[in-house]
Design a protein that fits this description.
single chain; 5-stranded mixed beta sheet; globular
Length: 153
């Protein structure tokens, strides 16, 4: 079985594994959205970020009305980051084709065997890397599916 590797990690200077499986994180490995949990953590430990409540409310409303893209929504929601000792958001939201770009940049030449994700829509590009099996994870049971049948391009 291939070694598990996080998509955000930098490739080590030693030899890369020849094959890996890819596991989506939010709602696949963990049953929640880690971004929302992180905002809650920051609000609890750094209460001064609560001055951002009006921004969060307006951002949620505009996102629900489809006025904001996901990238702009997340930029607004995480705009408080300079107020806490965490750093900043780097790059685009890691979704869709961006996942594939980051994977290839971090792990050049590595073959993807199986891919696990909760999102058939957003993770189509990363499912397309699988040379083995694609798994749609809902609840606690991954369901294998055929990429070509699912995405009749």
């Amino acid at each position: 079985m291939p070694n598990p590797v996080a998509i955000g990690e930098t490739a080590p200077q030693t030899a890369l594994p020849a094959q890996v499986d890819i596991y989506d994180f939010d709602k696949t490995l963990v049953p929640f959205d880690s971004g929302s949990l992180f905002i809650g953590y920051c609000a609890l430990h750094y209460p001064w970020v609560l001055v951002y409540l009006p921004v969060w409310f307006i951002a949620c409303l505009l996102f629900a009305l489809r006025v904001l893209s996901l990238q702009k929504f997340k930029n607004l929601c995480f705009g408080f980051l300079p107020m806490v000792p965490t750093g900043r958001i780097l790059g685009q939201n890691c979704r869709g084709e961006e996942k594939v770009r980051r994977f290839h940049r971090a792990f050049p030449g590595v073959q993807v065997v199986d891919v696990y994700s909760d999102s058939l829509g957003h993770d189509k590009p990363i499912f397309g890397l699988a040379t083995g099996t694609c798994y749609h994870v809902t609840g606690h049971a991954p369901r294998a599916f055929n990429y070509r049948t699912q995405y009749k391009d």
